[in-house]
Amino acid sequence: MQDTYTLQPIAVVKSPYKEKFGIPRQPGLADTVVSTITLLPNYSSEESIRGLQDCSHIWLIFIFSECVDKGWKPTVRPPRLGGNKRLGVFSTRSPFRPNPIGLSPVKLLEIHTTECGVELIVSGADLLDGTPILDIKPYLPYSDSLPEATFPFAETITPLAQTLLFSDNALSALQTEAQRLQQPLKSQISELLKCDPRPAYKKNDPDKAYGIRLHDLNIRFRITDTHIYVDTIEQVR
């Protein structure tokens, strides 16, 4: 058996997620957030994606590029379990792995083919801007969807039920920035914050303010037992 293998990226992600904090921890949880997969020159041809236009969804196999030099341990503390219980790394989707490879199913919205190359427009990706893509595969409903599959540690995801409120300043900025970016910004913010990006050990501090990066914006928010408050929305200069 060969000891080592060399893998080359075939595409790169252009995503509104500019830092790791705030990205949904699984794909498909923020369907209104759109990303672009740009094929690199050696792979960017109409022949390489022939037939892909008939797929509703595709798999993206990618590198956790921000974790490549961080190493790994046999056990990790999944945020899903409150950060207090350890599981084996191969029982989780932690990015800190012996080989930092991930996979995400995403919805394929459009394919743009120009003289500059091929771009795939997708929604539901949970990928940081600049993430290298190793491979793209069609999602096959007859084999990739397994409704009988179970895993008691992660059976379902329940979004936060708290009411989302914007301060007057944040609401004004929301309207301005949504128009400038031509994005459904309110829906995107709602999807991200209802996924509760807070660290598990800080969820009992309702006064703690957090910030997430989305597009070129810094969104400051707080979460209490009854509400999600968006305090400010500001461009990152």
Automatic annotation (TrEMBL):
Domain (TsaA-like) ranges: 7-148
Organism in which the protein naturally occurs: Neptuniibacter pectenicola
Database matches in PANTHER family: TRNA (ADENINE(37)-N6)-METHYLTRANSFERASE (PTHR12818)
InterPro entries per UniProt: TrmO-like_N, TrmO_C, UPF0066_cons_site, YaeB-like, YaeB-like_sf, YaeB_N_sf
CDD domains cross-referenced by the UniProt entry: UPF0066
PROSITE patterns: TSAA_1 (PS01318), TSAA_2 (PS51668)
Homology family: Belongs to the tRNA methyltransferase O family.
Protein name: tRNA (N6-threonylcarbamoyladenosine(37)-N6)-methyltransferase TrmO
Record key words, sorted: S-adenosyl-L-methionine
Pfam families per record: TrmO_C, TrmO_N
